[in-house]
Design brief:
7-stranded mixed sheet; two-stranded antiparallel ribbon; alpha/beta; single chain; 27% helix
């Protein structure tokens, strides 16, 4: 009997995307496979069994796919954090550094109530910049972040250390070495 597949087995690597020397970890192949996608959602939920979670926050864009599915499974609300200018209505913003420049993310200013228990979700943890900005937004709205959950961790880029230095609990289903 062949060994059963793990989440990591469903993720393809694309060489030299988006730039030469980058190994892009493509989770769309995981999302496209019903067994792989179900496995990922189930495993992302597992560490939080019995925890009170009021809302799931998903980071643009693949975090929306995961966050929506996880929120559905938990029967809780979903809150998107989007790039600047994409949300209608009043928002609060947070800037952060990218490898080559800066970016800004936003959340509706009424999306989270003080004391709500929040799970932040995204597909991949690299440098941690986007998630760190999301953490700051949730904290400004007085949400209580339970954890940050990812499918993939790229440990060589140091994102986990950044988030843990902010006092965050971090879970990832798998890790890939290198950039």
């Amino acid at each position: 009997m062949p060994p059963s597949k793990q989440v990591k087995d469903y993720i393809r690597t694309i060489v030299d995307f988006p730039h030469e020397g980058i190994l892009f970890r493509d989770v769309t192949t995981l999302f496209a496979d019903p067994r792989g996608f179900r496995m990922a959602i189930d495993q992302m939920l597992h560490p939080y069994a019995g925890e009170r979670i009021d809302k799931v926050v998903g980071l643009e864009a693949r975090g929306f796919i995961l966050g929506g599915a996880i929120a559905h499974q938990l029967s809780v609300g979903f809150v998107p954090i989007r790039k600047k200018g994409k949300l209608p209505g009043p928002t609060i913003s947070q800037d952060y550094k990218l490898e080559y420049g800066e970016a800004v993310v936003e959340i509706h200013d009424d999306a989270i109530q003080p004391g709500e228990k929040i799970l932040i979700v995204d597909d991949l943890l690299a440098t941690g910049g986007t998630c760190a900005a999301a953490i700051k937004l949730v904290e400004r709205l007085k949400g209580d972040i339970i954890s940050c959950a990812f499918i993939v961790d790229l440990p060589d880029l140091g994102g986990r250390r950044v988030l843990e230095a902010m006092g965050m609990d971090v879970h990832a289903l798998c890790a890939f070495e290198g950039l």
